[in-house]
């Protein structure tokens, strides 16, 4: 790769325009050859290119980040990566996003949006604290991105992102301030609900999505990542409701994957989980486990019914059996 073009691409986060390649000394014919299948360059999006060797080593999320950088090459300098594009830049969960679009926001007093060549251009108020640099790309802050998720994709998507952002140090107070600043925006009720309900104690999207059914069932207060101390050992649970003395756990399958749990055999993990559960139940507490499909928004009402049923069963007085002589 030409050193001049390599320097340009490095300054732009790994992407460059066709016109920049031509200005660096490549002829149109030579550039077309280099962009052919198997050539040195690969098209990231219309008009934007990257070095193939580098591009092919990237994950799908990293390629999406590169794609939005390519889109920004053709935008005004004040364009900021936002919404799901910002979420991918932070490598945080992008839950419930079904489109494959890139999102950019420009500051403006009036709100609007238009879609062009796979890019959604938003116009909305952007406050200076909410524009940050992420690997050389102007990006909305984690707090602002959570607000945009709530508005664009709904409560569940916004809550998953907000929880993950708080776990990495985002400010709950700033989210609440943004919810107040955007109170005149469409879907402001959803924005405020996400800002109020967000909690960095959830360690996965599944744990986040477990909370709304608990709130809908009237279970509270809820202590996330609560630790029980026993003789010589302890047990940490996803959520504990002390008023009903009930534990709630999201049964994510990642804990059974040796590649993600330090190489521990799945059978060993299962035995430990069973022993732990028996100890907790032996203390007289109720315990409810949820799988991924049960915490999806379209199942929340069914899950609420299950929660109420199992909590009621746990709190029901138990009659001791009466043994009569034969």
Strand and helix map with partners:
Blueprint: H1 3-11, E1 16-17, H2 18-23, H3 28-34, E2 41-45, E3 48-51, H4 52-55, H5 60-72, E4 80-81, H6 83-89, E5 102-107, E6 112-116, E7 119-124, E8 131-134, E9 137-140, H7 142-153, H8 155-167, H9 172-181, H10 188-197, H11 205-216, E10 223-230, E11 233-241, E12 246-250, H12 266-282, E13 286-290, H13 300-315
Parallel strand pairs: 5-7, 12-13
Antiparallel strand pairs: 1-3, 2-3, 4-5, 6-7, 8-9, 10-11, 11-12
Q: Your description of this structure?
A:
The protein is α+β, with helices and mostly antiparallel strands and 326 residues long. Helices cover 42% and strands 20% of the residues. The protein has helices at 3-11, 18-23, 28-34, 52-55, 60-72, 83-89, 142-153, 155-167, 172-181, 188-197, 205-216, 266-282, 300-315, and strands at 16-17, 41-45, 48-51, 80-81, 102-107, 112-116, 119-124, 131-134, 137-140, 223-230, 233-241, 246-250, 286-290. The radius of gyration is 25 Å and the shape is elongated. 34% of the residues are buried. Mean pLDDT is 89; it is low at 319-323.
């Amino acid at each position: 790769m030409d050193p001049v073009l390599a320097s340009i691409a490095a300054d732009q986060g790994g992407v460059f325009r066709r016109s920049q390649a031509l200005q660096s000394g490549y002829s149109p014919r030579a550039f077309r050859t280099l962009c052919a299948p198997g050539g040195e360059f690969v098209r990231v999006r219309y008009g934007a290119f990257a070095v193939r060797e580098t591009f092919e080593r990237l994950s799908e999320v990293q390629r999406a980040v590169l794609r939005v950088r390519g889109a920004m090459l053709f935008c005004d300098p004040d364009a900021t990566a936002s919404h799901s594009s910002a979420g991918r830049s932070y490598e945080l969960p992008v839950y419930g996003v079904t489109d494959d679009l890139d999102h950019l926001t420009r500051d403006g007093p009036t709100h609007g949006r238009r879609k062009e060549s796979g890019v959604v251009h938003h116009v909305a108020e952007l406050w200076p604290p909410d524009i940050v640099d992420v690997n050389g790309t102007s990006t909305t802050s984690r707090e602002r991105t959570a607000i945009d998720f709530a508005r664009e994709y709904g409560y569940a998507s916004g809550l998953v992102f907000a929880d993950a952002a708080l776990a990495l140090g985002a400010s709950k107070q700033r989210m609440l301030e943004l919810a107040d600043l955007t109170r005149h925006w469409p879907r402001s009720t959803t924005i405020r609900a996400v800002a109020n309900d967000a909690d960095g104690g959830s360690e996965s999207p599944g744990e986040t999505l477990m909370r709304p059914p608990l709130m809908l069932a009237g279970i509270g207060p809820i202590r996330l990542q609560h630790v029980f101390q026993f003789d010589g050992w302890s047990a940490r649970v996803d959520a504990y409701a002390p008023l009903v003395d009930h534990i709630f756990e999201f049964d994510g399958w990642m804990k059974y994957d040796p590649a993600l749990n330090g190489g521990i055999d799945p059978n060993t993990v299962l035995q430990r989980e069973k022993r732990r559960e028996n100890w907790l139940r032996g203390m007289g507490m109720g315990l409810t486990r949820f799988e991924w499909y049960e915490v999806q928004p379209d199942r929340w009402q069914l899950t609420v019914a299950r929660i109420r049923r199992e909590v009621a069963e746990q709190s029901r007085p138990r009659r001791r059996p009466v043994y009569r002589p034969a």
